[in-house]
Amino acid sequence: VIESFMDPKLDGRPKHLIVVSDMMEHTPAFSMYKSGADLKVFDSSPARSKYRTPLDGVDVKFLIFQRESSSSVKNLPEFWATWVTSNHGDLAGIERLTGTM
Fold first, then answer.
1. Per-residue pLDDT tens for 21-58?
2. Does residue 45 contact residue 30 with C-beta atoms inside 8 Å?
3. What does the alpha-carbon distance between residue 32 and residue 7 come to, in Å, rounded to a whole number?
4. Rg of the Cα trace of the chain?
5. Looking at the DSSP assignment, which residues form a beta bridge with residue 61?
6. Residues forming a β-bridge with 17
């Protein structure tokens, strides 16, 4: 779906992406359950190039729902804000939703 943002027919049109998630990355390439939201660990992992996403001209907003495990992860919003900008996107905001799952 992200690739559709790069369609030349959309040039000059506003592009918005809203992500609703606990934002806890957990793959064999990188896991926040193991390292936390550590940008240095992410940058040195295979996940950095594997999950690079072109976000040029895209406004990205995160709605983060909390899990008991995610509430203890420090720097989670900062991690994702940096990830968006490093992929050339524009951070439109990060909002933590109330309650836990």
1. 999 999 999 999 999 999 999 999 999 999 888 898 99
2. yes
3. 32
4. 14
5. 18, 93
6. 60
What the block records as the tokens of 56 is 């040029």
Are the CB atoms for 49 and 6 separated by under 8 Å?
no
Asked if pLDDT for residue 61 goes beyond 90, the answer is yes
Contact by Cβ (8 Å): 65, 35: no
What pTM, to 2 d.p., does this model score?
A: 0.84
Look at the block and give the residue holding tokens 């799952």: 101
* CB of 66 closer than 8 Å to CB of 97: yes
Q: Are 88 and 54 in contact (CB under 8 A)?
A: yes
